[in-house]
């Protein structure tokens, strides 16, 4: 009986309760310096499973799944702005000391947004194939204002387009499209399944919000080192050119390009782990 009581007490001693947010679901795994891992568009935090397995012996991994994605209940707009604000609040409430931010795609965008708005709160930042203004990747001269006035950014129409997508065959069609973003067909189907479980309104509104928010000037406020890991945009040379333009105002940065599609942590995991290990030392 005494032994059982000791085990119960030990369990509660080792279990930490963290303040949560309606803007995201959090799973905490591992011990050590805190890291927040933010997934990309429509993805579950499970996208980081293998990354967390690699990190958990040295780091306390806070794995987020954002509201409206992969079955997590949706919230009202502005969605990404609320997520950004709540990430800052989550770090403050839980007294996390200079947590590292690792974000993929949309998650990288949010990482830049949070870190630039609260530069003294966060530690190093790792952006996995994400940029401060996605709309300027093909045309660096485009502005957020121009995008907001674009007929393609009509919120009602974009949301309706997503809501009108037939559920029958959704996963198969999306998985086929995902093959342009990830090599493995099993991974492509999993990403498609997460998107199928996502709230259609959230899919539309977050796409618009990210496309009309320009952080290229704001990232100059980030004080900590930033590692930018890009995929191949036609050629490696073009990737470096695009990323250099996107991150021109960020002083303390390192840009490396993987021989990979968009989901770098899936396509080239050993290269990815080596990059983050070196950067976090």
Quick overview:
With 281 residues, the chain is an alpha/beta fold.
Which features would summarize this protein structure in a list?
7 strands, hydrolase, alpha/beta, 281 residues, Rossmann fold, 14% strand, AB_hydrolase_fold, seven-stranded mixed β-sheet
What does this structure look like?
The structure is a single chain. The chain is an alpha/beta fold. It has a single domain, classed as Rossmann fold, CATH 3.40.50.1820. It is built from twelve helices and seven strands. A seven-stranded mixed beta sheet has the order 1-3-2-4-5-6-7, sandwiched between helices. Helix 6 runs antiparallel to helix 9. The longest helix is centred in the N-terminal third of the chain and has 15 residues, at 79-93. Mean pLDDT is 94; it is low at 1-15. This is Alpha/beta fold hydrolase. Keywords: Hydrolase, Signal.
């Amino acid at each position: 009986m005494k032994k059982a009581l000791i085990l119960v007490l030990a369990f509660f001693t080792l279990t930490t309760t963290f303040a949560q947010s309606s803007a995201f679901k959090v799973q905490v795994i591992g011990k050590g310096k805190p890291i927040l891992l933010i997934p990309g568009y429509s993805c579950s935090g499970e996208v980081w499973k293998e990354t967390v397995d690699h990190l958990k012996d040295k780091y306390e991994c806070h794995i987020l799944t954002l509201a409206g994605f992969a079955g997590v209940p949706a919230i009202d707009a502005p969605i990404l702005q609320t997520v950004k604000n709540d990430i800052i609040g989550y770090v403050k409430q839980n007294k996390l000391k200079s947590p590292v931010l690792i974000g993929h795609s949309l998650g990288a965008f949010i990482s830049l947004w949070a870190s630039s708005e609260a530069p003294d709160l966060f530690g190093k930042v790792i952006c996995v194939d994400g940029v401060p203004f996605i709309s300027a990747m093909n045309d660096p001269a485009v502005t957020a204002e121009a995008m907001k006035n674009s007929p393609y950014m009509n919120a009602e129409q974009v949301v309706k387009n997503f809501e009108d997508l037939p559920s029958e065959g959704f996963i198969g069609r999306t998985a086929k499209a995902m093959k342009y973003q990830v090599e493995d067909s099993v991974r492509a189907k999993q990403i498609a399944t997460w998107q199928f479980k996502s709230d259609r309104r959230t899919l539309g509104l977050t796409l618009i919000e990210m496309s009309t928010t320009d952080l290229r000037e704001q990232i100059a406020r980030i004080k900590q080192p930033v590692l930018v890991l890009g995929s191949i945009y036609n050629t490696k040379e073009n990737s470096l050119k695009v990323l250099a333009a996107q991150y021109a105002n960020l002083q303390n940065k390192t840009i490396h390009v993987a021989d990979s599609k968009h989901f770098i942590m899936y396509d080239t995991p050993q290269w990815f782990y080596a990059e983050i290990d070196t950067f976090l030392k």
